[in-house]
Fold this sequence. Notes:
This protein is α/β, with parallel strands linked by helices. 40% of the residues lie in helices and 16% in strands.
Amino acid sequence: MRACGGCRRFLFFLPLVFFLPYLLSVLELHEKSVVEDLPRKNRQKFDHLILGPAAGQRLPNRLQCQGLKALNKTSFQASSIGNSISFVTVFTIYNTSLDVHVDSRASNMVTVGNASYSKTERSMAILNVFINFIQVTMPKSDVFILTDPASDLSMPRKGVTIYPIHGEYSRDKLMLQRIRSYITFLERRIREHSQGQGHINHYVFTDSDIAVVDDLGHIFHDYQNFHLALTFRNNKDQPLNSGFIAVRGTPDGISRAKIFLEEVLRVYSSKYMNASRMLGDQLALAWVVKSHPSFDARRFTKAQPFVEDIIGASVLFLPCATYNWTPPEGAGQFHGMPLDVKVVHFKGSRKRLMLESWNFFSSSSDISDMLCLILMSGRTKYDF
């Protein structure tokens, strides 16, 4: 009888043996779905800075912050060739007819600090801050703004030149036009050199939503044998970011950089027009580089500069971590900000953070402390 009782108890618990793993897997799946849903609930954009813990605490060679005070200072390096470097960006103003309606204008207004901006005004504010940072860190450099001749763009500032170039500047084609404008700009520099008018002046082509926080002259001094420089990151599909391209200002450097960009434009137009609004230029850059027979893409996994010959040009690859660092929404956020950061890129929804950073720097005059503000705010989506 006892044996039969044991059998009954065994038979009673037998279904649980099979059901329990299923129950646990369901609970695990539910827990996973809850975790995945968390970011979706926090996707709203904020109209003020949200400060969090500074990533990279106690990691070597990373900025250490106590509140908005930097405990270790970034290594600012002034260059003696700053007056031989020009920054070049593409910028245009779109139809702003909606702004004439008071109700529509009010709904599109954004306040940062003591100033309020419409959509057009905030774009102009970003452009002005872009120039401000250059004039602080590289005061001898000038800025060229490549723009649509039809754009009503005025920038009466010392060292700033509005440079009209005909093209297609619609939002859907702006990234494609940017490469075309770069090529046209370089062609004119080649023509000047051929007429004996040009002098050696290096160029840094950038997005207008970057902050130069250290002198970049050392790139052209420390690396003598490159024609153009690109920034890379450890990203399989998009290892290259087109928001920073440096070109050596010799006739040979300008000519080879133009040929390289013409190949990028050809690949862009033939392979990636479905991504013409954004990312197409980065995909085309990656295709041109990675399709070169001798190129080893594993070099992108280490944040160390290297040089490679690509279609007749000597290309210097610089790590984004230093020369194109973005307040991250990706894996880099856990590693903090490198102490040798030179350029901060305020992509996408980080534009408010760019304006707030300039306001903070204007009141503190300390770039290292300002970088703490950026580091502690970088994981939040803001309103523009």
